[in-house]
Amino acid sequence: MKKFLTKLPEQAGRLLIVFIVFIALVLLVRFLLPASLKDHNIHIQNTVATEMSRQVRYAGSEVCASCHDEYNLKKNGYHKNLSCETCHGTLKEHSENPTEIKPLVPRQRDFCTRCHAFDPSRPTGFPQINPSAHNPMKACVSCHNPHDPKPPNVPQECQACHAEIARTKAISSHVMLECTICHEVPTQHKVAPRNVKASIPAEREFCGKCHSTQSIIKETSKVDLATHGEKYLCWQCHYPHMPEVE
Amino acid sequence: MIQPLHQTLYELLKQATGFIYPNEIEVHWGILVVVYPYLTGLVAGAFILASLVKVFNVKEVQSVYRLSLLTALAFLIIAPLPLLLHLGHPERSFEIFLNPNFTSAMAMFGFVYAWYLMVVLLLEIWFTYRKDIILWSKNERFMMRWIHKIISLFSTDVSEKSVIFDKKMVKVITIIGIPSAFLLHGYVGFIFGSIKANPWWSSVLMPIVFLFSAIVSGIALVILIYMIVTPSRRQEIDMACLDKMASFLFYAVIIDFSLELLDFIHRLYESEESIKILSDLVMNKLFISLGIIQVLLGMLLPLGVMVAIKFFRFDAELRKLLYFVSAILIQLGIFATRWNVVVGGQMFSKSFRGLTAYKMELTGFEGIFMALLLLVLPFIVLAILVKILPPWEPAPVSDLEAVSD
After folding, report:
1. Does B153 touch chain A (CB under 8 A)?
2. Considering only alpha carbons, which residue of chain A is nearest residue B92?
3. Residues of B in contact with A104 (CB under 8 A)
4. ipTM of the complex
5. Which residues neighbour B213 within 8 Å (Cβ) at sequence distance 6 or greater?
6. Burial label, A223 (beta-carbon count in 10 A; 0-12, 13-18, 19+)
7. Domain stop point among A99, A127, A153
8. Domain co-membership, A135 together with A175
9. A147 and A70 in one domain?
10. pLDDT tens digits, residue range A132-167?
11. Which residues are CB-neighbours of B236 under 8 A, at least 6 positions away?
12. How many distinct structural domains can be found in chain A?
C-alpha cells in the first residue's frame, strides 16, 4: 500500500484527495438529510401535509344556498352542472365574510363565449353560437338568465345545437335531406334534449328506402341490399351525414 | 378569475385546424426545451472534435484541441439552465441527486450530466493544462497566481515523468469520454425517441440522429469560434487546420443527412396511421423551419458549398468566406432541427386529425429573450474560461527548464 502511494504521481494524489473529499461530502450530506428527503413514503406524507395546510379557496355551491336563492334557480336549469364558483371566482372568503369580500360578476360577453363560441371539438348537442352573429353588442345576460339560461324562445333549427353535423351535412351528397327524414324529433327534444331524445335509424332497410335496387326513388345511386355490406349497418361504413364512397 | 392564460389559449384555439383534444391547445415544451438539446448537442460535438484530435492524433487540428475542450465546458455549464428555468423551482433540482429515481430516464439526466462534467471534461481539461498552469503561476501577479494555484490543486510537479502521466491520463479519459459524450447527447434523443405515443418522436433512430446532428453543430461551432477569435488576436488563420475541420464537418454532415433521409424514407415506407397528419405537419406547420431552413439552407446548401470546395481550387480567402457562411447556415439548420423535433412533435393532435399552433412569448421565463440570453451566456462563460486558461499554442512560457528544477 505504502509502495503504491509513493509510486502514485503527485498530481494524481491531489486529485484523489479532491475526489475523496467530494464523496465524503456527498455521504455526509446524505447522512445529515432529514428522513423525509430520503424515504419516499415520508416524502409523500409530508407533501400531503403541505398541501393540506394550504388555504382553502373554494366554498362549494351548497354553501351559497344558505344565503342566495340563485342556488335553487340554477339547480334545474341548463347550467345545473356548473358550480357557482366557475363563474364567480373562488369564494371561500366571501361566504365567511360576505359584506367585505365581493365576488366577481362576469357580465361581459366574452366570458360566456369561452364555453359557447363555436368550436368543432365540443361534444354533440352542446349549445354553441357564433358570437359575431348572435345578437352582437348586447350583453348575453340581458336575454339569458345566467342561472337559468333558457333561450328566450325554443330554437327552431337543429343547427343551434348540432352545428357540426349540420355543417358537415351541408357539404355532403345528403345536403337535400332534412334531418327529420332520418330522425324523428319530438318537439320537447329542443327544450330538454337530454331527457327527450331524438330517434336514430335502426336498420339497413331504412337507407334501402332510397338506395336499394328495388327503390322507386330516382336520383339516388343504388346497391343490392342482399350483397352490399350484408352483415353490417350501412353507417358502420358510410357516415350518414357525409356519405363518402371510396 | 379571468386570467390572461385563458385569453391566449383562446386566441390559439382559432389557429388550430381540424380536431384536437382540449389539452393539446397549449404547447408545453416551448423554446427553452428547444435550446436545451441544441446546447447539449454543441457540447457533445465540440468534445468529439477534441477527441478526434487526440485519438487519431490529427496534427493539423491540434491547435484547436484546447479551444474545443473549453467550448464544450462553457456550453456544458449553461446546458441545464434552460431545463431548470423551464421546470421552475431550480432550487429543487438537487433533489434528483438525493432521491434518485433509477427507473426514470429523465431523472437520470442529472447523473449523466454530473459524470460527464466531473469525470470527463473537468479531468481532461485539468490534465491537459496542469503543467502550463503551474508554469504560468510562477510569474504572474497576485490574483491570477492564486486562481491558477487553486485550479492546479497546488500541484508543483512538472517533471518529465509526471507530464508523461498527464498525457496518458488524457488518452484514457478521451477514450472514456467518447462514449460519455455519445451518452450525453444520445440520451436526449433517447428521451424523445422512447415516447411511444408520439409518432413524430418515437423512433429508434432518434438517438443516433441527435448524436450526429450534435457532432455537426459542435464542429461548426468550433470553426466559427476559431475563425472569429483568431483574427481578433491578430493571428493568421491556419488554413491547414481550417480545411481539416471543414472536412470533418463535411463527413459529419453527410452522415447526418443520410441518417435523416433514412428516417424519412423509413417513415414513408412504414406509413403508419400517423403518416397523413405528419405529412400535413411537414407541409404546413413546419414547411419553413424544416423544408427551407433545416434541409435546404442548413444541409443541402452547405453540403453543396463544401463539395464545390473539394472539387475546385478556391483560394484561401474565398474558402474562409465559404466555410464561415456554411458554418453559420449549419448552426441555423441544427437549431431548426431541434425546433422541428421539439415543437413539431407537439403540434399535431394525438387524434391524428388536427394541428395546433405554437405562440412564442417575448418576455418571461419561457420567452424568446430568455432563450437568446441562454444562447449568449455560454460565450460569456467561454470568454472567462479563455482568460483563465488561454488555449493558444505554443504555451507562452519559454523558459520551461528554468523553472522546473
Report:
1. yes
2. A37
3. 1-2
4. 0.73
5. B41, B256, B260, B334, B337
6. middle
7. A153
8. no
9. yes
10. 888 888 899 988 999 999 877 777 788 888 888 888
11. B230
12. 2
